[in-house]
Amino acid sequence: MKLLNTEHSPLAYVLDFVLYGAACLALLAYLGVRAPVGAWGPLAAWALWGLLAWTALEYALHRFVLHGLPPFNRWHQEHHRRPEALISTPTLVSATLFLCGVYLPARWALGPWPAAAFTLGLLVGYLLYSTVHHAIHHWTLDTAWLRQRKRWHAQHHHVYPVSGYGVTTRVWDGVFRTAASRWLRG
Q1: Residues with Cβ < 8 Å from 136, sequence gap 6 or more?
Q2: What is the pTM of this model?
Q3: How far is CA 91 from CA 6, 33, 57, in A?
Q4: How far apart are CA 128 and CA 160, in angstroms?
Q5: Using CA atoms, how far apart are residues 33 and 27, in angstroms rounded to an integer?
Q6: What does the pLDDT look like over 90-116, one tens digit per residue?
Q7: Which of 168, 97, 179, 183 is nearest to 128 (CA)?
């Protein structure tokens, strides 16, 4: 079924960015229009927690699911073999996971406003991760920050595949000692 393919057409690949960008804007607008005015400070904190939680989730998913759990590890190996191919999680799968694995449990545990804000933070993190990962493999933009990430990610792909699971940050690789020693020297 095309909706569940990990290799996307160029249109489907771009639509993933568009849909997640639209979801972020929709959640932000929803919170801005509907949330109680006095709750904006705490909701901003929930969104920040969501963004920070994304970094840990990114690391855990990459390390334990994409490099460890069949069939996801086989699908991810294809990305390692062909890093410039348009391979990513099908939007239907990721959107379902965000809805059923994040928003609905958070709504049950925290209420509608904190759940929406936390989910917004996670979605922004996912969109940033997707953009950085795409840039690493496809952009020729030459900035020191992007060059560093390209170097780290190339080491993960080709030299130290059992290290360097963070794409947007190496914090969790440092915490869990999965950073290649060369990375720590800068």
Answers
A1: 146, 149, 150, 153, 167
A2: 0.91
A3: 9, 27, 17
A4: 24
A5: 10
A6: 888 899 999 999 999 999 999 999 999
A7: 168
